[in-house]
Amino acid sequence: MKMLDTIVALDARWVLAALLLAIDIWSIGLIIRARADRRETLLWIGVVLLVPVFGCIFWYALGPKPVQRSG
């Protein structure tokens, strides 16, 4: 039974890691679309990569917003 618990816990960690990776990729895509200057863009990408969960939250609250497409 202990082996099964270990496998389930490991699977849950991989799912959370994959979810975090997806959120980071999505956030970086939005940061690039925001069309801020290069330095600010690189700073925000660094924050998201170094502090993934809080970096995404901070960027969403404080960062430049993506440019809306007209069409």
Structural commentary:
- This protein is mostly helical and 71 residues long.
- The protein has one domain (2-62).
- It is 79% helix and 0% strand.
- It contains 3 helices and no strands.
- The chain has helices at 2-33, 38-50, 52-62.
- Helix 2 (38-50) runs antiparallel to helix 3 (52-62).
- The longest helix is centred in the N-terminal third of the chain and has 32 residues, at 2-33.
- It is elongated.
- The mean pLDDT is 82.
Features:
mainly alpha; 79% helix; elongated; 0% strand; 71 residues
Task: Write a brief caption for the model.
By secondary structure, the chain is mostly helical.
Give Rg in angstroms.
16 Å
Overall tally of domains: 1
- The portion of residues assigned to helices is over 70%
Query: Would you list the SSEs in sequence order as H and E?
Result: HHH
Distance between the termini: 58 Å
What percent of residues are in strands?
A: under 5%
* Oligomeric nature of the chains: single chain
Structural class based on helices, strands and sheet pairing: mainly alpha
Mean pLDDT: 82
